[in-house]
Amino acid sequence: MDNQPKKRQRNKWLALISMPIQMGVVIYFFAKGGDWLDSKYPNTHHVYVKVLTLIGVALAFYNLNRQLKEINAMDNHKDEQ
């Protein structure tokens, strides 16, 4: 029984440590997609890379918020027991 809380704690830290990597990957691929669209359909203001990067940032923050809520819910549930 004593091993269960340590494992849960380790999983929590693993999730927290991996979040910046996930955010970076999402933003990077959206920016690369925008760069590809800008090269395929040229325009003077590089609109695709700007718009897709902002969408990638918004999606990364949404994913971060969702994961943090899930971790907090697990902590609150654990505290109640």
Low-confidence stretches: none
Rounded mean pLDDT score:
87
Strand residue content: under 5%
Query: From N to C, what is the helix and strand string?
Result: HH
- Coarse shape: elongated
Largest sheet: none
Number of domains: 1
Radius of gyration: 18 Å
SS-derived structural category: mainly alpha
Number of DSSP strands? 0
What is the CA–CA distance across the termini?
14 Å
Per DSSP, the total helix count is: 2
Q: Bin the helical content.
A: over 70%
Secondary structure layout plus pairing:
Layout: H1 3-40, H2 47-80
Helix pairs in contact: 1-2
General description of the model:
This protein is mainly alpha-helical and 81 residues long. The chain has one domain. It is 89% helix and 0% strand. The protein contains 2 helices and no strands. The chain has helices spanning 3-40, 47-80. It is elongated. The model has no long low-confidence stretch (mean pLDDT 87).
